[in-house]
Amino acid sequence: MSAPESAERPGRSPGTAVVIPAAGRGVRLGPGAPKALRTLSGVPMLVHAVRAMAGSRAVSLVVVVAPPDGVAEVRRLLDEHPLPGSTELLVVAGGATRQESVRQGLAALPDDVTTVLVHDAARPLVPVDTVDAVVAAVHEGAPAVVPALPLADTVKQVEPRTGERAGEPEPVVATPDRSLLRAVQTPQGFDRDTLLAAHEKITLQGEGATDDAGMVERLGVEVVVVPGHEEAFKVTRPLDLVLAEAVLARRRATDGF
Ligand SMILES: Nc1ccn([C@@H]2O[C@H](COP(=O)(O)OP(=O)(O)OP(=O)(O)O)[C@@H](O)[C@H]2O)c(=O)n1
Ligand SMILES: C[C@](O)(CO)[C@H](O)COP(=O)(O)O
């Protein structure tokens, strides 16, 4: 018998899967284990991210994309931290770029999947409400959905100094209107066929895209934004680990976990 659907959350459906690219090294975080395997409050970052996705009742399958030489280790780690409920978990080998890793994850999806979320392992603390908002927007008909936040800083476009001129002050060439800009997070949600088309067609043009929605934009398909969340930040640099531990400590104090 299927679980009853709540009024607030989309119901678990066989058609919604998540691909979690987790094959990066985490160079900006500094020396150590691959970023997704580093721990936050004693639990690997990847496990936090998988739990966050499986916490959405809409998600029935999570495909983790592991470093090519780390598939067995990632499988073992995930087996040591079993998920409550019935979410299925696959682990596949990733590639040299995020784009390639996502592509490997997409290749592992069963035929009955119609909605695909792509979520960075490096965003371990995304709240389930954000996941549900993305899923709901796709289920309501948007082919591509990104969670995003307004910018806190003023942004400048510069003329980068590279090569022999690296390190010189960079001239500012423009100050974009901040009210028109958004900082984009994950999970990004897609109609499966749209995302597959983007990965098939845009890949031919090179590996330059830094997010999946950017590839869909290049197809000429509309991408829409839903509100993101401060706690969905990406663990990129060492200070982000401090922030992540603080968020977890606050959750333990207020929610008991
Ligand atoms: N070849 C790659 C590169 C990145 N990723 C994943 O893409 C997500 C976002 O990338 P980022 O935060 O840039 O991670 P890294 O590439 O690991 O970081 P860095 O650029 O500092 O090395 C991460 O979950 C990362 O594991 C991946 O699956 N395969
Ligand atoms: C996908 C992403 O997290 C959206 O903000 C971001 O583009 C990943 O970029 P990174 O340089 O690979 O961390």
Report a brief summary of the structure.
It contains 7 helices and 12 strands. By secondary structure, it is of the alpha/beta class.
Report on the structure:
The chain is an alpha/beta fold. The protein has one domain: Spore Coat Polysaccharide Biosynthesis Protein SpsA, Chain A (Alpha-Beta Complex). The protein is built from seven helices and twelve strands. Strand 2 and strand 3 form a beta hairpin. Helix 5 crosses helix 6. It is globular and about 55 Å long. The structure holds cytidine-5'-triphosphate (CTP) and the ligand C[C@](O)(CO)[C@H](O)COP(=O)(O)O. Its EC number is 2.7.7.60. It comes from Streptomyces pactum. Belongs to the IspD/TarI cytidylyltransferase family. IspD subfamily. Pathway: Isoprenoid biosynthesis; isopentenyl diphosphate biosynthesis via DXP pathway; isopentenyl diphosphate from 1-deoxy-D-xylulose 5-phosphate: step 2/6.
Major pleated sheet: 8 strands, mixed
**Coarse structural class:** alpha/beta
Give the helix tally: 7
Number of domains: 1
**N-to-C terminal Cα separation, in Å?**
29 Å
- The CATH H-level homologous superfamily: Spore Coat Polysaccharide Biosynthesis Protein SpsA, Chain A
CATH topology: Spore Coat Polysaccharide Biosynthesis Protein SpsA, Chain A
Helix content: 25-40%
Radius of gyration equals 19 Å
Number of separate strands = 12
Strand content range: 15-25%
Shape: globular
Q: What ligands are attached or bound here?
A: cytidine-5'-triphosphate, the ligand C[C@](O)(CO)[C@H](O)COP(=O)(O)O
Assigned CATH class: Alpha Beta
GO molecular function, one term: 2-C-methyl-D-erythritol 4-phosphate cytidylyltransferase activity
Function: Catalyzes the formation of 4-diphosphocytidyl-2-C-methyl-D-erythritol from CTP and 2-C-methyl-D-erythritol 4-phosphate (MEP).
Site (Transition state stabilizer): 28, 35
EC number: 2.7.7.60
